[in-house]
Amino acid sequence: MLKVHFTEADLAKVTIAGDADPMWELLMSSYRIRRPEGEPFFGRWRRGSRSAVPASGRLVMSAVPPYGYCPDFLTPAGARSIDEGIATVLETPERALAADVAELAAQGTRVPVWLRRVADGEPRELRRLGTALHDYYRQCVAPDWTAVRRAVAHDRHRLQSALDRGGPQLLLSTLHPDITWSPPVLRVRFPIEQELHLDGRGLRLVPAFFAHGMPTTYKDPDRPPVLVYSISHQRFDTDAEPGPSLAALLGHTRARVLVTVAKTRCNTSELAELTGISPATASQHASVLRASGLISSSRSGKSQMHELTPLGLGLIRAS
After folding, report:
1. Residue 123: left (phi > 0), alpha (psi -120 to 50), or beta?
2. Which residue among 232, 267, 313, 319 has the highest number of C-beta atoms inside a 10 angstrom radius?
């Protein structure tokens, strides 16, 4: 079990990642390729991605065992893009590289020679690692990045709604089936016994598309505290997609807008992000759906919040 110890100051500093994290998604996807869990959700992606892993990308696999400890430096905190994340990996201080690789060896993992050279800060091997991370991401993660971001955004809105309605206490209480909030300790199902004292630093919550099963965090307690957990999945290829009869009636994009509003109360900007369309297009479709009585909209600050009406729910169920 992982026990995360909060102070009052930490509760005020609970934050939610603003987007899918490319480095955590890269890492988690490398587990999904090699592990059998989650077949209903990841099976199609797994079968396609196994053959897509480039030769250089297999270097990543040799640094990340399919189970157990993964070097912390491979998932730097808060990367907003894959380029930023990899740049941060390559700028890791040599002492941190050495400590993480030593920890990997202490867990009984055979450390490849090239990774030992990375731990020594050899520029050539670091560049080789950067190329491997780029190649793997481009082939195995980037093709589905829009779907990944959409699904993570959906869960992020769920978290924000809980935070808005009940503050951090409600958010932590409804976070994940493997997480129990017993103030002032967050108890997380975990493969080992680990304690994390936040000491006023707060906690960053990272919903992850490719995560599956138990949440995870850094081994090093001095790193910025994060908790990475799996979102609730529909099937990989059907997230937020309307049925064929609904799409035929409303048009595919407008039907998807309706289904998205059914899943989460959201404003126009959020609706655009969740459906992968422009804010202007989202606003136009919302106006038509509202005029038809399928959704309702209300003002919340400067935003207009959209939610499903009973008529809209009945239409979705009927189709």
Report:
1. alpha
2. 267
195 class by beta-carbon count within 10 Å (0-12 exposed, 13-18 middle, 19+ buried): exposed
With a CB cutoff of 8 Å and minimum separation 6, the contacts of 147 are 209, 236, 239
Taking the C-alpha atoms of residue 148 and residue 32, their distance in angstroms, rounded to an integer, is 14
On whether the pTM is more than 0.85, the answer is no
SS (H, E, C) 128-187: HHHHHHHHHHHHHHHHHHHHHHHHHHHHHHHHHHHHHHHHHHHHHHCCCCCEEEECCEEE
Which one-letter amino acid corresponds to residue 180?
Answer: T
Per-residue model confidence as pLDDT tens digits over 238-292: 445 677 888 888 999 999 899 888 877 788 988 888 888 999 999 999 999 999 9
Token couple for 132? 């491997």
Q: How far apart are CA 61 and CA 152, in angstroms?
A: 24
